[in-house]
């Protein structure tokens, strides 16, 4: 079994943090995104989305998309982390907040970064105006995130979940790429982000 990744990307970090939290190990293969290794015919033949991370099983089956990979390991590796939530209400709340954070936060941040920086301008049409609009939307989402965390220790309730992993990576992107001052402007996010960042699995 091999996990193809570019370790610094949020999607690959999501899988790495998830694996850390459930105590799973897998062989890693580094993929050069800037050099276009993920758009070669060989890689495209493996990945349904043409992106990393990509999990290649021993029988040749391939699983792309980070959340799908996390779900696979969650079922395959005995663990009590319940990162997708216990069956019933808790799993529904995890799914709800995970989708909210991903669609309204992380994806907007991705679009902002890609279109403003032109990181993949050799293979996609980058629209700076859309990047700036996406950045505005991502920053606006911080108010909703901060409000949620004013009522709950974690995003989906009382327990750590995959929604927190995604939210943590979103905040890292906002702090790193866009220099948003989380510490001063969003006190509840700051407390939550600091708590997660202190956990060895998130480092």
TrEMBL record:
This is Glutathione S-transferase. GO terms for biological process: translational elongation. Residues 1-81 form the GST N-terminal domain. It comes from the Bacteria. PROSITE patterns: GST_CTER (PS50405), GST_NTER (PS50404). Keywords: Transferase. Residues 87-203 form the GST C-terminal domain. GO terms for cellular component: cytoplasm. Coiled coil: none annotated. GO terms for molecular function: transferase activity.
